[in-house]
Each structure stands twice: as structure tokens, then as C-alpha cells.
Design brief:
The complex is a heterodimer of chains A (467) and B (857). Chain A has 467 residues and is α/β, with parallel strands linked by helices. Chain B folds into 5 domains: 169 residues, 3-Layer(aba) Sandwich (Rossmann fold), CATH 3.40.50; 263 residues, 4-Layer Sandwich (Purple Acid Phosphatase, chain A, domain 2), CATH 3.60.21; 103 residues, no CATH class; 238 residues, DNA ligase/mRNA capping enzyme (D-amino Acid Aminotransferase, Chain A, domain 1); 63 residues. The relative contact order of chain B is 0.08. Classes of the chains: A alpha/beta (467), B alpha/beta (857).
Chain lengths: 467, 857
């Protein structure tokens, strides 16, 4: 990784004094992740160019973090772009190697610290995942003139298109300190990756390096969120500090939302369970546990189950509802376990009702048959509630291309007819009555955004044949 | 002193009954292993630190019962050392014995009260009040005579210290335990009095039968069996047919001569009850049998009840790999004895409901069978016996005019003779097969119990492979959300270890270490195969759609499937390529006469599919190309800026050299992946390089060496060289140094031209070493390929030194286990053991793959 900063300000010695780096020397400094070299590829009375070269060893980088065992087993550990592109490594190097310039101290010529100088920055491997527009959004409001060239991924394979790297030249007339501050904050934001763990001290760092410019930057919210890795408590604190009144109004706006479609599905399920006097229910595919939190509050439910295939999700749900801290009675009432609806599972059989909220569409159509057997044949459930998106409604989503599903993991989405055909076949095969409804506000032509089938087992005494 | 011998079956629940100080613990310790004894006193101590704490009794007994259950479930003889004087306490023990189909046996120590009192006084650990002993004595007296009625199979009583002292316990195997009998066997289906057909069948199987005029001599028949072979009858020797008496005579003769075993069928049992004098209706063919017995000789008739009585419910043979039984038997009942086991064995699982023919509705027990032992049974006549979930029904309704069937074991061949005539009409129509989809895993429902939590899987190649719960967890998500349908997934390839790290300058891997591995393990010949750089692909392919439906139970799903080493569809987005490629492959197989040569309609191949860029597009672009792009750009700019600066500033030479070198490494890195990428525009841009023919109908081809695999595959590839790539290989004799040098040069040449490297394997598919199986294959990757794995600068001396510190032990252990599971899965699939068993094994591979291991190995 290399970055150059040039000026045509005269005397050029001002520039070297500010940088605290002698123009005729090749200087090297050890930093935690490798070495930083400073040298001047060009220096004359008329102009000066300083280069900061980082020598990051990728092998060292990966062997260093032994404590993070699992992470070291990622394939990109040795093979990654970190050593070559602009990133938080560069910000760290700026503060370690050009610390006094960044902090605005210059013992010998204090008068030039705040003086605007004509400066040019060149970064030949700028990493910016958000593309050209994003780079411009961040730098142009600060008065920079940009020259941007995207790098092709591989000239031999033009069909692979462009990389997320750019050759960038930034021109502006401003104090050197400010330029360095801009780079310090904005380069990691563009790269959207940090080589160290983001903790609370980052707020302080951002506010000090962003002093005098971040609060008026039109993208300050975006910059703040991204710099602090979207940690809500951190960015809210930083934004409040930056501009107390504005952020309060943002918070309020977030609160006043209408009940979402998701909530409507849950309310519908809860109502249905209530009117039927169901005493025990299992949420098949409980996900993040939103419905469970609804169900826990229903006094009529004596037993609640949550089955989820993703163990990580399940653990997160347990944390979210403070499962481990619940009283033994509550824990007995609410059982959470990993399971998959393509496997016969005796644990399902001990519940009266089963609920599948937006679950089936995450399963390959070829595996639905297994789900049907597991839930309908072996599940021993008197009521089964299944919801799924209504595909017809998709035309009303402006941003959804016609051939796309609402979620990248959806394996299919059904029209009302497709859903009902499926439901009717199941009802007949497994001896249930079935009833369909729309969920969400109904469109006269396209129906509701989501649809539900409610299956009721026909009350015929039936000997269970399978154990 | 006279010995007091008592026989105890090897698996039993032995309940000691006696008052305090009657010597139960001493008795138990003398005759049983410490681990076999569950003592209530000890459990009291375990839960309360005090053997005499009577308040802890309830908890202590919970523990007693829990431990007994665990032991009985695992088939271990267990002794209960407690007073067991109250009927209710014995009742709970009997309930446990019944649950696990274990014989309950009571041993009463009825020691005179005065002796107990005396002993009690001298005890140092505990002295009971006199009245307690007195009460206990009363309870003991009340227990006499009740124990048998309560359900104990045998009751032994000893009345004095002397009698107790004289006891000698002899353990005998259970009647059903014939694990030492390892065959070969000829297993014969329901005979039902068809003596002529039985005789023809035995003669067809090379048995010589001599009939004696003296009908008392060997019950009238002497049989000479072909060398080492024995006959196993699955029961129902009698009823309906013309000569049940002769069948009985022949069977009795063979059994007494140690040439045969027979289990009890429901008809045999009915005859037994009839002869015992029970009120049994003369129907379903019993009338004919009674008629045939009417004029039989006295000695035969006298021996018959005992013969029938001794017919056991089932036999477990051949180290537990074979079970014969009349109507069927679940795994947890095998090797157990109880009334429940006996009736299940004779009648199978029934619902108690009567069907349209007014006969008990039968449950298809085999559908859910997932046991390790092959169960051979009869009872329900069918037209075509077939292996199904590791079971086979060989009752082919001879008495109804069809055939009499024998199954040769371990050959798994059927031998049949046709019925000479129809002797009886079946009470319900004879079905073609056990169910329509027999042999297909089609109606198998996977069970979460087979895969969840910690599992220990047994395989032929590696005993006891433990699947840890934390690895099963991610595998479950994978299997249910991302893989192809489990019916396709009969195999997953094992991981492959690289060669040991090389110490040659500039190399991290070199063939010499791989060759040395096999050499030091005593392998004489190895095969070195070119390693193609594409993506691993497993190809399931069949002659036509119908063959896929028949063997894999997938309807209208085409003639096959191409899937990745993680069980996902290879062509997820572009399914049209998959169908086209499969079709081309199928045509090549047609032309090579593959189906006829291998007598199969389907096959599973292990392949490499190219180009790499076809599957790994995202990885390539996001990782390798991105790194190359950034590295080349950044290092070129650096180089030129340094050169520029050098004109006016002194730059240390080592810095100049270092960055010049780094620039070159960046370019090399970029060049490293180029040979593996090309644009796919037409079908012929794909290349498939098969390297193992894993399985075809009836065969897992691990008994063939790699030369056979290569030749078989080359023969196919030549029919479509545009798409099918024959892998280059060399067979090396490890005693010839020149051959070794040649193959090293070959490797160097290939890798210098940009090849990935090669795979070194022992010539035989499976080789056993001193410590289990050897690595089935070891890869040696080329210098430039490794640059992609370890980064552009990996071969700088300083970096290489660090990278040499890599451990292979875990990788190799995983490779062996996954290989063993994969082979077992294929075997199970080929034998038709059912989806649940195969899936459990394949799931195991997937779970092992989530074990954290350095992915660069």
C-alpha cells in the first residue's frame, strides 16, 4: 500500500516541516503490523511529493492472531487484499508516522499549521465497495476535485468486469492537518472493514478527527454509522455529540411506525390460537423468536415449543428472551430446540398446534414432501397454521424485479391458487379441514401481501399406528 | 460338599431377595463382577453420603432403577442387591426387565432369623433394631410362592449358609445367541409341509439326503451337507401342505445332527399348543397336519412336543450380522427374550385391526428397520424376494403353488424350486412384493434421532467413528437447507491430506514425502494421477429416467445429478448445463457398452469438473482476482515511486530488492490462476475428468485397484474426448528408484507448466496398515498453485519457514474417517439398506467436515 501527498506550495520546506520528515532521507518505522517507510519521490523548490509506503506481511498478519482460532481457519486469511489497499491500516500508520501533522503540531513553523496549501493526494489502490458515487459523496462536499479510474479485475477476463479498487487523485487547497483527518476517517469508511476491534474509544477518535468538518458534512450520519461499524449505542452517542437536536428527532421518527406485516402475521396466529382455545403450540421454524415472545404472554398456553434449524439463531433467541434466567417453571413451559422439518421428530408430537410462519418458502420444493410427512403425518397436531408470501402481490413492490423473490433465500413464492391447491391436497391426504385467509391490507386484484392456511384435524378417533 | 449349580443366562436381571444380614452383598460379590451389581446401600451413599440414611431411600432407588435401565438397554447382566422384600419394589424391577426384554431371575437367601440376628449384632457398619429384622422375616415368608406368579422366570432359594456357600453360578449363552456360527448358510423360507419341494431345493443346494427304512434311525433321514454349510429354517415347517410330518422329521434329524437351526413360526406354535392339549381350532391347515400325524410312530410323536417347545423365537448369527426370525424383529429386540419378543417374532407387528380379508392388519415393520444385522424372515408370502432396509422376506408361497426359496448367505443369492402343485388357497392374495416401493428409499422418512447429538457410527474400515454434537449441529442446517435431495446423496467424498511438509529449499510440498509415506508403510506399488484444477464433482448417472426412479426413488428428475463435495447442486443456477452434460456422459457410457459390461443401469462416479471458474466464479473474482489486481497495482506503483526517489535519495538496497521481488510475486500470483479459468460459452467448454467408478448395481468398486478404475474410465472417455478428460497417470514400483525419480520429474514438469499437482495413491483402493487403514490418497500441490493458497509472497524464505509449521495429524484422521464413512454408505446403498442408514453415514461425513481444520491443507 502506498499513498503520496504533493504540494506546489513554496517554500516546499514548509511542507516537510509540517510532515516532520526530512526530504533527503528514507525513513522507516516499525508498527504493529509491519513497517512504514517515508520518502520523497520528488522534491524541488517548486514542488514536493511525499510517499508513505506500508509493508504489511500477510503471513505475519494471519499467524499473529493465534488467539482467534476459528478466524484463522478462514480461507482468505493468507490471501486477502489488506496489504495492498487503503484501509484502517493506513489510518493507523498516518497517526503513528505522521502524528504531529495529523494533530496539528509544528514546533518550528506553527504559523503554517492552519494555512491552506494546494495539496494533491494519490491513492492507486483505493478500496471503495460502494463505487464511484460513494467516493464522490464523501469527498466532494469537502471541496475536493476528484480524478477517479476504476481498475479492471483482470484484463485477461474482461467479462469479469471491474474491481472495487480505484486509482484516485484528490485535489484541494486546505491545511495539511485537515487533509490527513479526512483521509484518517474516510478511507476506512470507504473500505468498510477495520483491522482491529471497534470499541468505545473509537467514538472519541472519530469526534476528535472529525472536529470542524464532520458535523456539517451532509453524509455525517452515514460516515458515523459506518466508521463505528453500525454499533447502535456507539453511533447514537457520536451523533448526539455532533448535533444534539437533530438526532433526537431521528429517534422519534423511528418509533412511530405502523405495525409491520410481520407483526400482523403474529397477531393473526395469536388470535387464531386464542379463539380455538389451544393449550400447547410449537413454532416450527421460530427464527429470531418474535412470535415466541408474543406467545409467551398468552396465559392460555401451558406449553410452548420453538424449533429452529439454525443453531446460531436459536442461541441468539435464547439470549434475546433471557431464556437462561427464566424460572424453572417458565423454562418448562417454553422449550427451544434445534430441529429440521425434513426429519421426523417425536418432540413435535407433544403439542396440540403447530405454526409455520414464512417457513415453507425457504425449503427446496423437492423437500416439501418430507416436511408434509413430518408435520402432517407424524406431527400429531390438531391445528396447523402455515403462512407464506402471496406472489401475486409482488407486482405492488416497486423495487422488486419481476423475476425475483422477496428474499434471496426464498426457493419459491406461490400465488393464492398455488398455495390453496397445495393446501387442499394436504388436507385431503392427511384428513384435515382447511381454511385460507389473507394477511395484511388486501388489494382488490392481487390479494394480501401474505396468505395463511389453517388446517384442522378432522375429529375422528384414530389409532396412532406409528410410534 | 455337594455343589449347588445354577444356570443363569448371559443376559438377565438377577434380583436378590433376603432380609438384612442374610448375606446378599457377600453373595453378589462372590459371584458377580463389581460393575454388574447395583446395590441400594451404595446408591443411598451416592445420593446422601450415608449408606444407612433411610430418608434417602426414594432417591437412591431412582438411581438404582436408572442404572439398571442403562445396563439392560445395553444388554448387560445386572444384579440388584437390595432386600426386595415387598411385591411393589419387585414389580418395578420386573417392569424394567420387561421393557428391555430381559429375563428376570430371583435368588432368595432364606437364612434362619437367628443367624441373621447374630450377624446383625456383630456388624460394625449398622445395627438394625430387632423388630425391623422380624418384620423383614415376615415379608420374606409372604414372598414365597409368589415370585413365579409375579413374573420371575426362575426362582432359586437357599436356606442355610451352607447351601449358599455351595452355590456355583454357571452362565450360559441365551438360546438365541449363535453369534459363533458364522456360516455359510442356506436359509429356507416357509415350507408348510411341502416335503418334496424341500428335498428338491436341498438337493439343488448340494445336500445329499438319505432316507432310512428304519424310521426311528435319525428320525428317518440322514443328510450330508456341502462342506461347512448349514441350513436355517425361518419357521412354519407345518400346516397346509401334504407332508408336514416328513418335513418335521427331516428338520429334527438335521437339527439334532447340528446341521440346521429352526426358529418358531406361528403355525409351529399352534401345533405345539394343540399337542399340549390346548383348545386350538383346526383351521388354517392344522387339520391336515393333525391328519398326517395320526398314523405316525410313537417315538416321533413323543419327541415332537419337546422339539416344538424348544424352537426359539429367533437366532442371532455370524457375530451379530445375521438374524433369522419367522415374521420380523426390531433391532432392540434382537438377542433378547420375552413373551413380547416371541410374539413379535412369530407374528410381526400388527395393529390389532382386522383387514378386508378378516385377517390381522400387518404393519410394514421392515420399512422402519435401520439395524446393523440382516434380518431374514418369512411369514408373509410374496412373489419376489428383495433386499429392503437390510431385511429380506423369503416366503414365496410354495404351498400356494408358487416357489420355495433359499437364500445363500453370505453370498446373498437366491435359489428356488417351483412348487409341484398348488396345495392350498391363500387366505389373502399373494402380493408381488412387500410393498410397491420395496428396495426404494422412497417412503423413508429421515429421523432426527439418527443424526442429532453425539453419534457413534460403526464402519467396516474404521470401528466407532464419533460424530460430535457440535459438528452435527451445523450439518443439520446444511442438510436440511442447502444440499440436494438426500435420495441423491448416497456418498460424499472424503477430504484429502497433502503430503508432509517438504524441507527442500523453495518447496512447501514435494512428491518425495508422499511417496515416502506409502513406502514406509510397506506399500509396494503406487499410482500417481494428475490432479486437475477444477471442482470436485460427484456424478450420479443412469441409463434412463426409469432407472433413477427405480434405484433412487426420484421421479421425473432426469437421468442423474452432479453435486459438489458439500452435497450441493453443482449447477444450481444453470440446470440446463447439468442435463446436457449428463446426456453427453450417458451417450459415452452407452457407446462404451458400460451398462452391459457392468450389469447395471446406474453408476456413481467421483470426478473433477472444469473449469474452476465455472463453479468458483465468486471465490475467484472476490478473492483471487481481487487480490491479484490490488497487489499488482499497488506493487507496480510502489516500484516506480521507489525508482523515482532513488534518483535523489539513497534507498537501502535490501529495500529496493525486496520491493522488486514483491512486484514479481504479485505478477506470479496473477498468473497462477489463469490456467484454471476459461470462459464457458458452449457445452464443450466444460471438461469432466472422472477418476473413480464408485458403485454400480450390486457392487462398490473398492475391490478393484486404481489401474482398473483408470482403465475403465479411459475406455469411457475415449468416446467423447471433447468433454470427458482421461486423467494421466503413472504406476510406480516403489522398489525402483528410477521410477520414483521419473515420477518426480513428471510432477515438476506438470506443475511448472501451471498444473495443480498430482495425487498419490496406493495401487489398491484400500490398504490396511499397522494402525488402521492408510491414507487413501495424498496430494502434492505445485509451487505456483500453492501461491494461490498461501498468498503471493509465501515462498519468500522467511515466510516459508513459518508456513512449514503445519500439523497434518488431524487432517489425516479426518480423511480416514470420512473415507470409511463414504465406503460404508456406498455399501449400504448397494445392499439396499435403506435411506436412513445411508443418510446417517453421509450425514456423518458432512458433520466431520465442519470440524475446524486449516482449509489450506
Amino acid at each position: 500500500m502506498i499513498v503520496t501527498i504533493s504540494t506546489t506550495h513554496q517554500p516546499t520546506s514548509d511542507f516537510t516541516y509540517l510532515l516532520h520528515k526530512h526530504p533527503d532521507r528514507f525513513q522507516t518505522k516499525d508498527i504493529s503490523f509491519g513497517k512504514a517507510h517515508v520518502f520523497y519521490p520528488a522534491f524541488s523548490e517548486k514542488e514536493a511529493t511525499m510517499a508513505l509506503l506500508l509493508d504489511i506481511n500477510a503471513v505475519d498478519l494471519s499467524r499473529r492472531t493465534q488467539q482467534n482460532y476459528a478466524q484463522s481457519f478462514q480461507l482468505d486469511h493468507y490471501v486477502n487484499t489488506r496489504p495492498y489497499v487503503s484501509s484502517s491500516f493506513l489510518s493507523t500508520a498516518l497517526s503513528k508516522v505522521l502524528g504531529s501533522a495529523l494533530n496539528g503540531t509544528c514546533k518550528d513553523r506553527p504559523e503554517i499549521v492552519h494555512k491552506a496549501l494546494p495539496l494533491v493526494v494519490r491513492l492507486d489502490t483505493l478500496s471503495a465497495k460502494g463505487g464511484e458515487a460513494q467516493i464522490r459523496r464523501l469527498f466532494e462536499p469537502l471541496g475536493y476535485e476528484l480524478q477517479l479510474t476504476p481498475l479492471p479485475l483482470d484484463e485477461q477476463f474482461p467479462e469479469w468486469g471491474l474491481s472495487t479498487f480505484y486509482s484516485l487523485e484528490l485535489k484541494n487547497t486546505l491545511p495539511l492537518q485537515q487533509l490527513l483527518q479526512h483521509l484518517f476517517v474516510l478511507l476506512p469508511v470507504l473500505d468498510n472493514n477495520k483491522h482491529y476491534f471497534v470499541n468505545e474509544s473509537e467514538i472519541e477518535k472519530l469526534l476528535s478527527k472529525g472536529e470542524n468538518w464532520l458535523d456539517t458534512h451532509p453524509e455525517k450520519e452515514y460516515i458515523t454509522k459506518r466508521y463505528l461499524k453500525y454499533k447502535k449505542s456507539y453511533y447514537q452517542k457520536a451523533l448526539t455529540e455532533l448535533n444534539p437536536e437533530e438526532s433526537a428527532s431521528i429517534k422519534n421518527a423511528e418509533k412511530e411506525k405502523l405495525p409491520s406485516l410481520h407483526d400482523q402475521r403474529h397477531e393473526m396466529v395469536a388470535d387464531e390460537l386464542k379463539t380455538r382455545g389451544i393449550k400447547s403450540v410449537i413454532d416450527l421454524g421460530c427464527g429470531s423468536g418474535k412470535l415466541l415472545r408474543h406467545l409467551i404472554k398468552m396465559p392460555q398456553l401451558e406449553k410452548i415449543g420453538g424449533l429452529e434449524v439454525s443453531f446460531r439463531e436459536l442461541e441468539a433467541t435464547k439470549k434475546r428472551i433471557y431464556y437462561e434466567n427464566m424460572s424453572p417453571k417458565s423454562q418448562e413451559r417454553l422449550q427451544l430446540f434445534q430441529g429440521a422439518l425434513t426429519y421426523k421428530d417425536e418432540r413435535i408430537q407433544s403439542y396440540e398446534a403447530g405454526v409455520l410462519v414464512e417457513v415453507i418458502e425457504h425449503l427446496d420444493p423437492s423437500r416439501l414432501e418430507a416436511l408434509e410427512t413430518v408435520v402432517f403425518e407424524y406431527g400429531n397436531l390438531s391445528t396447523i397454521i402455515i403462512t407464506t408470501p402471496n406472489r401475486e402481490y409482488n407486482v405492488l413492490f416497486e423495487n422488486l424485479p419481476q423475476d425475483k423473490f422477496r428474499h434471496p433465500d426464498h426457493r419459491f413464492e406461490w400465488t393464492r391458487k398455488e398455495f390453496q391447491d397445495w393446501g387442499n391436497t394436504l388436507a385431503q391426504k392427511f384428513d384435515y379441514e382447511v381454511d385460507y385467509q389473507a394477511i395484511g391490507e388486501e388489494h382488490p386484484l392481487h390479494g394480501g401481501p401474505s396468505q395463511v392456511a389453517i388446517f384442522t384435524k378432522n375429529a375422528k378417533p384414530q389409532a396412532k399406528q406409528n410410534k | 460338599m455337594k455343589k449347588n449349580n445354577i444356570n443363569i443366562p448371559e443376559l438377565a436381571l438377577i434380583v436378590l431377595v433376603g432380609t438384612s444380614s442374610s448375606g446378599k452383598s457377600t453373595f453378589a460379590k462372590k459371584h458377580f463382577k463389581a460393575t454388574e451389581i447395583i446395590s441400594s446401600d451404595y446408591c443411598r451413599a451416592l445420593v446422601s453420603d450415608d449408606e444407612n440414611n433411610m430418608k434417602a431411600t426414594n432417591d437412591a432407588f431412582d438411581l438404582v432403577h436408572f442404572m439398571i435401565e442403562k445396563r439392560l438397554k445395553r444388554g448387560r447382566l445386572t444384579v440388584v442387591d437390595a432386600t426386595n422384600l415387598r411385591p411393589e419394589s419387585r414389580k418395578s424391577l420386573l417392569r424394567i426387565a420387561k421393557k428391555y426384554h430381559v429375563l428376570p431371575i430371583a435368588i432368595i437367601l432364606n437364612i434362619p432369623q437367628r443367624i441373621c440376628i447374630k450377624r446383625n449384632k456383630t456388624r460394625t457398619d449398622r445395627v438394625l433394631p430387632k423388630h425391623v429384622l422380624h418384620n423383614q422375616m415376615n415379608l420374606l415368608r409372604q414372598s414365597f410362592g409368589r415370585l413365579g406368579k409375579e413374573g420371575f422366570k426362575s426362582v432359586y432359594e437357599f436356606r442355610s449358609p451352607e447351601e449358599v456357600k455351595a452355590v456355583e453360578i454357571i452362565r450360559r449363552p441365551l438360546f438365541n445367541n449363535k453369534k459363533n456360527e458364522q456360516g455359510p448358510f442356506d436359509i429356507i423360507g416357509d415350507v408348510h409341509g411341502c416335503f418334496k419341494e424341500l428335498r428338491l431345493l436341498l438337493e439343488k443346494l448340494d445336500y445329499k439326503i438319505i432316507k432310512h427304512r428304519d424310521r426311528s434311525h435319525n428320525w428317518g433321514y440322514t443328510v450330508r451337507a456341502p462342506k461347512g454349510r448349514k441350513v436355517l429354517f425361518v419357521g412354519d415347517l407345518v400346516d397346509r401342505g401334504p407332508a408336514s410330518n416328513e418335513v418335521l422329521r427331516l428338520a429334527m434329524s438335521m437339527i439334532e445332527a447340528g446341521q440346521a437351526y429352526c426358529v418358531r413360526g406361528n403355525h409351529d406354535d399352534k401345533l405345539r399348543r394343540k399337542l399340549k392339549g390346548n383348545d386350538v381350532k383346526l383351521q388354517h391347515g392344522l387339520a391336515e397336519t393333525m391328519e398326517q400325524l395320526k398314523d405316525e410312530q410313537e417315538d416321533f410323536l413323543a419327541a415332537l412336543p419337546r422339539f416344538l417347545h424348544r424352537l426359539t423365537s429367533h437366532y442371532v448369527l455370524d457375530d451379530g450380522k445375521l438374524v433369522i426370525v419367522h415374521a420380523g424383529l426390531k433391532e432392540e429386540m434382537q438377542g433378547r427374550t420375552s413373551q413380547t419378543v416371541l410374539s413379535y417374532a412369530m407374528y410381526g407387528e400388527t395393529t390389532g385391526i382386522l383387514d378386508e380379508n378378516n385377517l390381522p392388519e400387518r404393519i410394514d415393520w421392515a420399512k422402519d428397520y435401520n439395524g446393523k444385522a440382516l434380518v431374514v424372515y418369512g411369514h408373509t408370502p410374496i412373489q419376489f424376494p428383495e433386499f429392503d432396509h437390510n431385511t429380506i422376506n423369503i416366503d414365496t408361497g410354495c404351498v400356494f403353488g408358487a416357489t420355495l426359496t433359499a437364500l445363500r448367505y453370505p453370498e446373498r443369492e437366491l435359489v428356488q424350486v417351483d412348487a409341484l402343485k398348488t396345495y392350498s388357497k391363500p387366505s389373502r392374495p399373494i402380493r408381488e412384493r412387500m410393498r410397491e416401493t420395496i428396495n426404494l428409499p422412497i417412503d423413508d422418512v429421515l429421523n432426527i434421532q439418527d443424526v442429532q447429538g453425539r453419534q457413534v457410527l460403526q464402519t467396516e474400515l474404521v470401528k466407532n467413528i464419533t460424530i460430535r454434537e457440535e459438528n452435527a449441529i451445523p450439518a443439520l442446517e446444511n442438510m436440511s437447507r442447502f444440499t440436494i435431495h438426500p435420495r441423491w446423496l448416497m456418498y460424499l467424498p472424503p477430504t484429502m491430506s497433502p503430503s508432509a511438509t517438504s524441507n527442500l529449499e523453495g518447496y512447501l510440498e514435494h512428491p518425495i514425502e508422499a511417496i515416502d509415506y506409502y513406502k514406509t508403510n510397506g506399500v509396494k506399488q503406487i499410482i500417481c494421477e494428475e490432479k486437475h484444477m477444477g471442482s470436485r464433482a460427484i456424478i450420479v448417472i443412469a441409463k434412463d429416467d426409469a432407472s433413477i426412479q427405480e434405484k433412487f426413488g426420484l421421479e421425473n428428475k432426469g437421468i442423474g445429478k452432479i453435486y459438489t463435495r458439500t452435497g450441493r447442486s453443482f449447477f444450481k443456477e444453470d440446470e440446463q448445463w447439468e442435463a446436457l452434460l449428463l446426456d453427453r456422459f450417458r451417450i459415452a457410457l452407452d457407446k462404451a457398452n458400460f451398462w452391459e459390461t457392468n450389469e447395471t443401469n446406474w453408476a456413481i462416479f467421483d470426478c473433477e469438473l472444469m473449469p474452476w471458474s465455472a463453479k468458483a466464479q465468486a471465490l475467484l473474482q472476490e478473492q483471487y482476482a481481487a487480490v491479484a489486481c490490488a497487489a499488482v497495482q499497488s506493487r507496480s506503483v510502489t516500484q516506480s515511486l521507489l525508482e523515482q526517489a532513488q534518483e535523489r535519495v539513497a534507498i537501502p538496497t535490501e529495500i529496493m530488492n525486496r520491493f522488486t521481488q514483491k512486484k514479481e510475486k504479485a505478477h506470479q500470483f496473477k498468473k497462477a490462476y489463469h490456467p484454471y479459468c476459461w470462459k464457458v460459452e458452449r457445452l464443450e467448454d466444460f471438461k469432466i475428468a472422472p477418476f473413480h467408478l464408485l458403485a454400480t448395481e450390486g457392487n462398490v468398486h473398492t475391490n478393484q485397484n486404481h489401474k482398473w478404475h483408470m482403465e475403465t474410465i479411459h475406455d469411457i472417455c475415449k468416446h467423447d474426448p471433447e468433454i470427458l478428460l482421461a486423467t494421466a497417470y503413472k504406476i510406480i514400483n516403489l522398489e525402483q528408484e528410477t521410477e520414483i525419480q521419473n515420477v518426480i520429474s513428471w510432477w515438476t514438469e506438470m506443475t511448472e507448466k501451471g498444473g495443480e499437482g498430482m495425487v498419490v495413491k496406493p495401487l489398491a483402493f484400500i490398504v490396511h496398515g499397522a494402525k488402521g487403514i492408510l491414507q487413501p490418497a495424498i496430494k502434492c500441490r505445485g509451487k505456483e498453485y500453492l501461491r494461490l493458497i498461501y498468498g503471493p509472497d509465501y515462498d519468500l524464505p522467511k515466510n516459508l519457514k513459518k508456513l512449514r509449521k503445519r500439523g497434518l495429524g488431524k487432517k489425516r484422521a479426518m480423511a480416514s474417517r470420512e473415507f470409511a464413512l463414504g465406503q460404508e454408505a456406498l455399501q449400504a446403498f448397494v445392499k439396499g439398506e435403506g435411506l436412513r442408514r445411508v443418510h446417517q453415514l453421509v450425514f456423518g461425513i458432512m458433520a466431520l467436515e465442519s470440524e475446524p481444520i486449516d482449509p489450506r491443507l
